[in-house]
Amino acid sequence: MYIQVIGAGSWGLAIARLLAVNGHRVRVWCRAEDGPEQLRASRTSPVYLPGVRLPDSIEISTEHDPAAEIAVLAVPSHVMRTVVAAHRFSEATILVSVAKGIENETLKRMSEVIHEVSGTRRIVVLSGPSHAEEVGRDLPCTVCAAGDDAALCAKVQEAFMGKTFRVYTTPDVIGVELGGALKNVIAIAAGVCDGLKLGDNARAALMTRGLAEISRLGVAMGADPLTFAGLSGMGDLITTCTSVHSRNHSVGERIAQGMTPEQAVAASPMVAEGVRTAKSVHALSRKHGVEMPIAEQVYRVLFEGLDAKQAIVELMTRDPKPELG
C-alpha cells in the first residue's frame, strides 16, 4: 500500500517508521524548515524523535503527492485547516487524522475540519495511548480507528496493525476525538499536581474526576459514554497524565515550579495541544451547559493569571456533591 504521512514531527515520523516496517511504501511530506536534507542524509531527527532511525525505504519530500491510498495527517490541530487546504487528495484517498485537538475559532473536531476543507467523507480518526517515543522504539501500543464507514476503518486497521501496534475499530468518532483532545487539558492539571508534589492521591483524584468531566461533555455532544472507559478515553488519559513523555503534563509541571504559561510552553519545541484545547473546552462547556471544574481551573491558570496553588484550593473547597450526580 502507498501511504503518505503529512508532517515530520515526532508522531509523523514514528508513524512513518511503523508503516514502513509493516511493509508499505511510505512517503513523508515535510516543510522546508523541518530539515528534509538532514532527514534524508541521517534518517534521524534529534529534535523530534531522538534515537530512532527511519528505514532507508521512506521517501522524504517537500512535494505533495495526491496519489497515496492513505494520507496520514500528522500535524498540530491548530494548523490542520491550513495544511489540508494546501494539499490535493484523490477521491479514493483515505484521510487519517492523528491530531488531538479542537479548533479554537469554530470549536470543530479535526474530522469536521478535514471534511469541511477537503469535501471528502473518507476520513478515519486514529487515537489512543500512543507516545511517539515508544512507538518509534517498537514498544507495544494499542489504539482505536474511528470512522463512519466500517470498511475504511478496517482498511486502516489492516495497514497499521503489526507485532507491536494493535488497532481496534469503533464507529464513535465524536467520543474518540473528544477523548483524545480533552485528556490533554486534564494532563496539564496532573502536571501541576505533580509539580507541587501533592502526591498520588491528588493525581488519582484529578484523573478520575477529569474523566467524569470529559464523559459529561462527550455525552452532551453525542458520544457513546462507553468510549470514555476505553483506549481513547481512560487509556489515553492515564498515559498523558503519568508519562515522562507527556508534553501537556510537562507544561503543568513547569507552571507549578514557577514558570509563566508562556515560558512553560516555550520551553519545549514540541506542541502541547492541551493549551489551545483549554480555550475550546472552556467555550464548549458553556455552549452545552456542562460543568467542568478542572478544565475551568486549567483555563484560568493558562489565560487569566490564576495562581496554580489557588486553583487547587478552589477545586478542593467546592460545594459538596454526590459523586455520580
What's the helix and strand layout?
Blueprint: E1 2-6, H1 10-21, E2 25-29, H2 36-42, E3 59-61, E4 70-73, H3 80-85, E5 94-97, H4 110-118, E6 123-127, H5 132-135, E7 141-146, H6 150-160, E8 165-170, H7 173-195, H8 200-220, H9 231-242, H10 247-256, H11 261-266, H12 273-287, H13 293-303, H14 308-316
Parallel strand pairs: 1-2, 1-4, 2-3, 4-5, 5-6, 7-8
Antiparallel strand pairs: 6-7
The average pLDDT score comes to 96
User: Shape, please?
Assistant: globular
What's the total helix number?
14
User: H/E element string?
Assistant: EHEHEEHEHEHEHEHHHHHHHH
Beta strand %:
5-15%
Helix/sheet category:
alpha/beta
What is the CATH architecture annotation of the largest domain? 3-Layer(aba) Sandwich
CATH fold naming of the largest domain: Rossmann fold
Number of strands: 8
Q: CATH homologous superfamily of the largest domain, by name?
A: NAD(P)-binding Rossmann-like Domain
- How many structural domains can be distinguished in the coordinates? 2
- How helical, in percent, are the residues? 40-55%
Largest sheet: 8 strands, mixed
- The low-confidence parts are none
Radius of gyration: 19 Å
Side by side, the strands of the main sheet go 3-2-1-4-5-6-7-8
